[in-house]
Predict the 3D structure of the following.
Amino acid sequence: MREKTKISLLAPARDLRVGMAAIDAGADAVYVGAPEFSARQAAGCSTEDIEKLCRYAHLFGCKVLVALNTLLTDEERKKAVKIAWEVYEAGADALIIQDLRLLQESLPPIRLHASTQCDNRTTEDVLARERQGFSRAVLARELTIDEIREIRRNTNIELEAFVHGALCVSYSGRCYMSEKVLGRSANRGCCAQLCRWQYDLLDKDGNELARQKYVLSLRDMDRSRYLREMLDAGITTLKIEGRLKDEAYVRNITAYYRGLLDEIFEEEDSAYCRASEGKIYLDFTPNTEKTFHRSATEYFLHGRTEKMANWETPKSTGEAIGRVRARGRNWLELETEKELHNGDGLCFGDKGFMVNRVEGKRVYPNQMPDTGVGESLYRNLDTEFIRRLEQSRTRRKVITDIVLEETERGFRLRIGEAAKEFEAEKTKAENGERARANTEASLRKLGDTVFEAGEVRIDTTEAYFIPTSVINAWRREVVEMLTRMREKRQPRTEVHRGNGGESQEIEKTEGGKKALMTCRYCILNEMGICRKKRGRREVAEPKYIRSGKHRFELVFDCKKCEMRVVEA
């Protein structure tokens, strides 16, 4: 029988607590920020917490990947190498890096993953990462399924791709706008998210084509309908974005994708299987619209489509709940099938309000919104759902077989991979059936550990009486042995390093101007006036975007199907 391909669901973790929640919800691996030099400056994790997370993850055969993925100064590289060694010794399974000059340093023998910040969007890019000794390349979000297949056909490196979460409008690693305007470099972990600002769209003469719209603010990625297609294309790690997201979000989204993947794995003749162990016990029903949700796009997976952005708001819109049917002095009556709760958050466009009280289909806002009859409403905070997530007792258990065997001087207890012999007097039980039942019941009591009893066998020539307190003590000791063994599981593979590379340079475009963003997303296409699609029809085109005193030029490279935002 052909060996199945192991597939890893990779979840984000801003800290130890969120990382453990992701593992409980079904992640096969989690990625966290190093104590310094991660691409999310606000989401670094201490070495001590990384060590705790590694011990917990390894119990289930899960991996912990540490992001050390900013561009570094010469001085910082020395400190980054020190951090790399510290997290390696703490048990980390891989480092995610962007600065290729780190390859010239004395790094620990740990797997290296080429961050999406390396701009891995062509076969040549990914082949270069393979030659440099990377174990995995995190592909650019903009790639189509055909481009992914092409890369898979021509490379041997592991391929990782995003499936869910926030999108950068620029190719990752190629955005310099935040640094130019506010001195906060996206490549050094402190992006100010200028793509979420409001802009005026101007033609070449300065006339406004659109006013105060979020023209660069992409919807969130959601590729949940296409997981099998991505696996068949050669992706072996499916990544959820969100190292700044809270525990409720990570728990919900991870559980949602865990369920979808398990359905694929359970199909007859499936070629895929999980990369980790453990049975998940959920106590809620995952719903991606119930936690941070900017509406959805599959992005470029099947080519260029319209409505990749939401020009009305960069905020979470949540789930559509219906329309306003009527309004009074201090209430709105809704046309909806949803059950609403006191404290819910509702919104329309980029405006929102809280619900103080619900009476049937009538809601009493904390402040009356400027919304008319017929307006569509969305719920971006479902208080009851969030409460369930925050109080969730979701658990993950490793199903473990238990065997009690007779030895010359006593008994041997085996739980999973751990076993120990105990000297004991053998006393034949007066009631053999009851004795075996009591012994089995005591062996099954694995309590608050991460283990759950599978098959329990008592292989003895006679039914012996063993006091419950003795069985319990033996069981606790072997379970502790098993826990320590699994915590320390970390197969180290031989790592081959290639040559390093140079730091990325700021790109240039017409007239020597600096390209502050390079995007596959195109405002012309979003407006329905793509040059390639419209033929000879003349339409006024945006030439600039403006926000306050800041003005930028738009350059459309139709041959490459790219848009650049450059210094005006």
Remarks:
- Residues 468-487 form the longest helix (20 residues).
- DSSP finds 13 helices and 28 strands in the chain.
- The first strand starts at residue 5 and ends at 12.
